[in-house]
Amino acid sequence: MTLPVNAGAQDAAEIESRIQALLGEMTLDEKIGQMTLVHSYGPIEGDFLENLRAGRIGAILNDVDLARVNEMQRIAVEETRLGIPLLVGRDVIHGFRTVMPIPLGQAASWNPELVERGARIAALEAASHGVNWTFAPMIDITRDPRWGRIAETLGEDPHLASVLGAAMVRGFQGDDLAALGTIAACAKHFAGYGASEAGRDYATTNIPENELRNVFLPPFKAALDAGVASFMTSFSDLNGVPATGNSLLLQDILRDEWQYDGFVVSDWASVEQLKIHGLTANDRESALAAVTAGVDMEMASTTYREHLADLVADGEVSEATLDEMVGNVLRAKLMLGLFENAQTDPAALPPTGNPTHLQVALESAVQSLVLLKNDNDTLPLSDAGLSSVAVIGPLADDGYEQLGTWIFDGDPSLSQTPLAALTGRAGDAFRVRHVRAMETSRSRDAALEEAAAAARDADVALLFLGEESILSGEAHSRADISLPGSQEALVKAVAATGTPVVAVIMAGRPLTLANVLDDIDALVYAWHPGTMAGPAIVRVLFGDEVPSGKLPVTFPRMVGQVPIYYSQKNTGKPATPESVVHIDDIEVRAAQTSFGMTSFHLDAGATPQFPFGFGLSYTTFAYSDLELDREAVPYGGTLTASAVLTNTGKRAGTEIVQLYIRDPAASVTRPVRELKGFQRVTLAPGESRRISFRLTPELLSFTGRDMQTVLEPGEFRVWIGGNSDASLQARFDMLGAD
Ligand code: GLC
Q1: In the structure, which protein residues have their CB atom closer than 6 angstroms to any atom of ligand 1?
Q2: Which residue in 140, 144, 157, 267 is the catalytic one?
Q3: From residue 234, how far is each of 70, 71, 207, 452, 734 by CA, in Å?
Q4: CA-to-CA distance for 201 and 476, rounded, in angstroms?
């Protein structure tokens, strides 16, 4: 963790000397205390107070009662022998009181500057409640929308997640961790958690090391390069060695290769769970496995407190090892400036939920919205052309559900819902009739006739559908990822009226929509858009804002296609349009090898419902003239790829221009496409602009068979376009090293 430029009132050398001075005074018990993170709630009394005073607690989590947090900091500083202040951790995943879109939704903005601003707001609000450490960004890569925690991710792509994860780190930490309102970030969950088998949370992950290094690790390296103060180990079993006891991850890669000097915290009781996994026989062995692998701090369970002293006494763990680990924790506390001041004065920070914060939440929500369908230019709606609007569905007016998962401190009373925003906009201009139709998103019974009647009587039916927030997030995986409950029936009942149907879907994951897509004229995917869902959605529906969001994750046609993602390997028999046959079109007693013989599903084909990077606008864009400034690149050289983007429509709009590459022949097979650059470009109608990308050797390199980063000579292909199916392409050769 390279020290930020102005790390508070001290520099690296001073911090290291202070660490050594403290270690020289600390007892073994106090050192183990710094490695102990305790769940704090309720009054400061009993064993908790005794342990606090004895210096046996180095950090607390989940307490945001400022008076209590300040009192705990006072006790730690004034009533312990060495006065070491506490880390105060909290899951501030996508906002504190003011809630931004879920991270998957923020990823749809492809806007690192905006993502950084959202994290900045979250840090300010959390810091005003005594929090100085958040367990975010969550930068797991996943290609499995069954997994409930996809909601917390920044999507399926390593490059996008790397850029946006680093932006979150900068937002949380600022450029000086000791500055007021900055909080330490935590890159989680290290690593490979998103590959949980069957998308079932906490399930086994089996990831070849080459794939781990090429797909799952890059966002963590990007977070490290951005200065992230801590890492959190994953719950998951990685190739037979759970991450919390995995020295390949925590020593070989994180410390030896990446030279990380931040600290590593376990996930909740994941040290104690090592025996449940079957890696150890008991808590003492679990403590040994985790401390040996390199877990500096144990969250929630107490195997360190119970067994580390004995392990040192028995010579199984050296105190020098503990000194190194405690030093990692002290370094963060010193960089946070906690020794200079551990108290929080809320008056010194902006109030939560203030208009500035809400404005950032609005902008973030607007840019997270993805227009997936817009037949007959159903959208944008025109106020003038409307006399009656039907607002139907369980998520049109639910200030809690629109916030999404992981909003421990979100404030639903701040929420502005779509119905409220629409009603406010309507005024006397047009009528708004609201039919919730379903009590919850899972309701099996729906007021279909009432909904249809409202639709029949309206110029347009706005359907607000999707998932309640509890249906995604930790431990909330789904095997069927279609619209829950009777929502499909609701869509069909409304569509049967013939009134144009606009669906706005709030969900914590991609849903399978094949059964209803034909019944919907326009579709806006809103993820869980947070506090300002209502104004954001209404502004886009009426064209005050032109949608610019692009999918950060692939949408399957059917859950049986999962995992399905754009950066797949070609296989030896890739599907082609000619080779794909639909199950309904197969002749009776067709000869076994008479069709297909390539990689696809008979009942789903080989393509997704919507590809990674896809999103429509209220205008149209065209790409032309893809140029490379050279087509024979000296080994290790850089080249520039560019293309002309033209706004061919009638409205100004913002396009997220994407650049993909492919290395068609390499020492290990490479994906058919890999995102290596993107830019947000706003153009007026008719305007054209050449958009350029620099392709550096780092972007063309990958981890080869020997687990080393390699840049291999040979042909490369390049695409520039508006999604991962881009067709405008060029090629170049990376020449061999002399
Ligand atoms: C949870 C999550 C982790 C979170 C931690 C603290 O189980 O896995 O992401 O930060 O515990 O709440």
Answers
A1: 91, 135, 188, 267-268, 474
A2: 267
A3: 30, 32, 14, 47, 38
A4: 7
